[in-house]
């Protein structure tokens, strides 16, 4: 029986009720803010009650959406728990979105209330019946409204299967879709991760991720919330700050960029991490070189895991056992992972690269008001087609080869970018690389590599590198061109935006038109 099965059998029926039953030491610290404000578990619960009352005052009820575009604050985080207690659906939005972009989400989700930073209130006014404000110090019209609200709140009667959050996918291609996550999706993942990563009341997690994305909003926060540990809550990631916090912390959850920055900092030593027990990475691929470099310098093997907005966490390298660089580990308890033929959907033999599909209590309910998309990506037997390509080895470890849409098809052959990137990254002077397919008159797509060089390696030998690769790779896999750039375009979660690279180099192989 999994930890989640036990919770379901216990009769607890929704996310807030689970939080309440796990709150064994209400006076223990849950959050230490970087603004000098600390919150015990009880403080946090009472704060969520006041917020729930304030939202109810604005007629937010069961099933209503509450759109939230705010900087990072404890109130901003507690808004999720408040919504869950109301039975409302929390809809976080990236703070970088412009008012025009927000309009799309608001049009799609039809929230009854928008909560935004005071500076944006003017631009968003009129998009919903009501707009309240909240700044990253916990000020604004919502904060003012809280002062007159009682902290006790009678939670709505909701079930595991009821919606709790609507998270829009990052949408690097096409329109972003709203993934509806239930109380059960979020609770099952948090309960599973507490066990899998051995979280407990002594844990102190450095929380430097944004709270509009599932990683910082749910993975990091809910795991600690259900374990009785505490968060060192930072409004942004600052490498000096994180280095200074290490002696007080036990764990860090970050995107790969956190780790490359830490690795480049002279303050990262064996001594500085003496108090730490676990470093976790996800949301984008961690370079095997970073994994190795980090272990050499600190003695800690970073634990890499794989998740998505639609599913929360699916696989993880083991807490006890081999953490393999370049892999995302084994399926978490209660979650099934399979690799299938992207066209026929048939299961593939072990070791073959194909579409990664996942099934379990973590898999979202569906895309918001989009039955067609939901049906296209959720199979009748409950597996979700992730859109990521990968393979499973003899020990059950999953390796991701890239997004399906990043697959390069050249002259009829499939080229998996990661395989080529791993070869290129071994050349001296290369920091990292991104392999893309670019329109090619003859081949359909031409394999193209974009590389970032170490400082001091500005003069690089493109043809030398190409001939080096010819010795190691089948001819069709060798890039036609290798282009050096100062850095790769990344989004806020550290994901390389290959669609931007494809756009930038779209004309690379097009024949130049003859002058008339
Ligand atoms: P998001 O929905 O923004 O969380 O993005 C999910 C996507 O991030 C996945 O479908 C993967 O393509 C990618 N991703 C997440 N974790 C990893 C990882 N550890 N390694 C490689 N890609 C990852």
Could you state the CATH homologous superfamily of the domain at 1-229? ANL, N-terminal domain
Helix content: 25-40%
* Count of alpha/pi helices: 16
> Regions with pLDDT < 50 over 5+ consecutive residues?
none
Known CATH architecture of the domain at 1-229: 3-Layer(aba) Sandwich
Overall number of strands: 25
What is the terminal-to-terminal distance?
75 Å
For the largest sheet, list the strands in their spatial order: 2-1-10-9-11-12-13-14-15
* Largest beta-sheet characterization: 9 strands, mixed
Write down the CATH class of the domain at 1-229: Alpha Beta
Describe the model.
With 516 residues, this protein is of the alpha/beta class. Among the domains are: 1-229, ANL, N-terminal domain (Rossmann fold, 3-Layer(aba) Sandwich); 408-504, 2-Layer Sandwich (GMP Synthetase, Chain A, domain 3), CATH 3.30.300.30. Helix content is 29%, strand content 24%. Strands 2-1-10-9-11-12-13-14-15 form a nine-stranded mixed beta sheet. A four-stranded parallel beta sheet has the order 4-3-5-6. Strands 16-17-19-20 form a four-stranded antiparallel beta sheet. A hairpin with a 3-residue loop joins strand 13 (303-308) and strand 14. Helix 3 crosses helix 7 and helix 8 packs across helix 9. The structure holds adenosine monophosphate. Adenosine monophosphate binds next to strand 13, strand 19 and strand 20.
């Amino acid at each position: 029986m999994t930890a989640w099965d036990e919770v379901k059998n216990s009769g607890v029926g929704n996310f807030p009720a689970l939080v309440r039953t796990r709150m064994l030491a209400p006076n223990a610290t849950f959050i230490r803010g970087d603004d000098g404000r600390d919150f015990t578990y009880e403080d946090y619960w009472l704060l969520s009650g006041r917020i729930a009352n304030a939202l109810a005052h604005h007629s937010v009820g069961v099933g209503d959406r509450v759109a939230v575009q705010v900087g990072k604050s404890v109130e901003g985080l507690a808004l999720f728990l408040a919504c869950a207690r109301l039975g409302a659906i929390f809809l976080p939005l990236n703070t970088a979105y412009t008012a025009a972009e927000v309009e799309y989400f608001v049009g799609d989700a039809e929230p009854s209330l928008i909560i935004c930073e005071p500076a944006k209130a003017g631009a968003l006014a009129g998009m919903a019946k009501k707009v309240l404000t909240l700044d990253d110090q916990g000020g604004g019209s919502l904060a003012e409204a809280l002062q007159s609200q009682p902290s006790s709140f009678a939670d709505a009667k909701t079930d595991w299967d009821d919606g709790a959050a609507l998270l829009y996918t990052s949408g690097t291609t096409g329109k972003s879709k709203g993934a509806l996550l239930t109380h059960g999706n979020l609770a099952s993942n948090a309960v599973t991760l507490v066990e899998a990563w051995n979280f407990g009341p002594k844990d102190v997690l450095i929380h430097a991720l944004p709270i509009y994305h599932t990683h910082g909003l749910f993975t990091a926060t809910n795991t600690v919330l259900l374990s009785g540990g505490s968060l060192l809550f930072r409004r942004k990631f600052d490498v000096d700050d994180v280095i200074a916090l290490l002696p007080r912390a036990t764990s860090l959850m970050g995107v790969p960029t956190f780790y490359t920055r830490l690795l480049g900092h002279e303050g990262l030593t064996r001594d500085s991490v003496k108090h730490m027990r676990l470093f976790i990475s996800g949301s984008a691929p961690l370079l095997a070189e970073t994994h190795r470099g980090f272990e050499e310098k600190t003695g800690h093997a970073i634990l890499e895991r794989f998740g998505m907005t639609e599913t929360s966490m699916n696989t993880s390298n083991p807490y006890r056992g081999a953490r393999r660089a370049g892999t995302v580990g084994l399926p978490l308890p209660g979650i099934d992972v399979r690799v299938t033929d992207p066209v026929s959907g048939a299961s593939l033999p072990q070791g073959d690269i194909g579409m990664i599909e996942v099934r379990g209590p973590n898999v979202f309910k569906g895309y918001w008001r989009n039955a067609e998309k939901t049906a296209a990506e959720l199979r009748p037997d409950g597996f979700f087609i992730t859109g990521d390509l990968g393979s499973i080895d003899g020990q059950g470890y999953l390796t991701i080869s890239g997004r399906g849409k990043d697959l390069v098809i050249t002259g009829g052959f499939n080229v998996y970018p990661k395989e080529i990137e791993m070869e290129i990254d071994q050349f001296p002077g290369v920091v990292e690389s991104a392999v893309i397919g670019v329109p090619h008159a003859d081949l359909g797509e031409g394999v193209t590599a974009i590389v970032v060089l170490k400082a001091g390696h500005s003069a690089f030998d493109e043809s030398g590198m190409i001939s080096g690769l010819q010795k190691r790779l089948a001819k069709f896999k060798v890039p036609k061109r290798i282009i050096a750039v100062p850095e790769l375009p990344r989004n806020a979660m550290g994901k390389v935006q290959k669609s931007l690279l494809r756009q930038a180099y779209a004309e690379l192989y097009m024949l130049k038109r003859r002058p008339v």
